[in-house]
Amino acid sequence: xxxxxxxxxxxxxxxxxxxxxxxxxxxxxxxxxxxxxxxxxxxxxxxxxxxxxxxxxxxxxxxxxxxxxxxxxxxxxxxxxxxxxxxxxxxxxxxxxxxxxxxxxxxxxxxxxxxxxxxxxxxxxxxxxxxxxx
Length: 134
Ligand code: THU
Hints:
By secondary structure, the chain is an alpha+beta fold. The chain has one domain: 3-Layer(aba) Sandwich (Cytidine Deaminase, domain 2), CATH 3.40.140. The protein has four helices and five strands; from the N terminus they run αββαβαββα. It has a five-stranded mixed sheet. The chain is globular and about 40 Å long. The N and C termini lie far apart (42 Å). The relative contact order is 0.16.
């Protein structure tokens, strides 16, 4: 499959799942989709809570869905759709770092399509990760 078709599949998965965003408090709907190292796509949306701190972001829900489904994964791409375009939050970057490779890309989109692609390492060049633990 071409890179363009792959990005399109990720975009469509994130756009479809964004419709399920449960965001009555922020009204900020987010959809995300990840591509795993073995070529699978998982999507997620943000899920908020009356106890605000209980909210979970779309990116983390997509990653957790992948891990819940198949165990440990590598994350090659993370595509996120917001309106307007926004970068993943620090909590999500930390979770992405757990499964990222040195080639992981973050694709920032609005509902009309991809707007910007950046290497994950640009966001988090020095993550706290397993190598940080004794
Ligand atoms: N949100 C995400 O889903 N992903 C992010 O990376 C940033 C923030 C969600 C959390 C909350 O439901 C809403 O956007 C406003 O912060």
